[in-house]
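queue> pop job 88
queue> type: inverse folding (structure -> sequence)
queue> payload:
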């Protein structure tokens, strides 16, 4: 479904300029390399990428990437630009470090929960491994036969 949405950006566009050409105040040509990725309806998308990377660098990056990977490349540039504008010092590394810290905390919580569960299970088991609670009787019709 994601691919289908991305393919729409390569369809012939109306006569309006792409977001990049509007931002750069230049005429958008039919061969504009930005047009498939920065449609006129998304002006902030290019503005963010331009602010962080510059139009020349984005152009060079797009030229170096195979055409079938350019959608993903632009999406990565947009994400990196948004994160870099929110956190100019660490950018994506800050987001990754934050997520890693959260993962470590959740792993610790999981170990703690498993340890507590094991201690509660031990309370209900005697030394022979049988339950101290009365056994539950399963009707014959509901038993599995192997």
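queue> result:
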């Amino acid at each position: 479904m994601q691919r289908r949405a991305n393919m729409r950006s390569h369809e012939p566009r109306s006569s309006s300029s792409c977001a990049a050409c509007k931002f750069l105040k230049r005429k958008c040509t039919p061969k504009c390399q930005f047009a498939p990725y920065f449609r006129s309806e998304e002006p902030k998308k290019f503005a963010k990428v331009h602010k962080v990377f510059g139009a020349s660098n984005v152009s060079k990056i797009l030229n170096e990437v195979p055409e079938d990977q350019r959608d993903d490349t632009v999406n990565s540039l947009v994400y990196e630009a948004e994160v870099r504008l929110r956190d100019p010092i660490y950018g994506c590394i800050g987001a990754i470090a934050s997520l890693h810290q959260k993962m470590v905390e959740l792993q610790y919580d999981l170990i703690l929960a498993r340890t507590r569960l094991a201690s509660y299970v031990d309370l209900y088991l005697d030394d022979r491994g049988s339950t101290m609670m009365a056994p539950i009787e399963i009707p014959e019709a509901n038993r599995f036969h192997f």
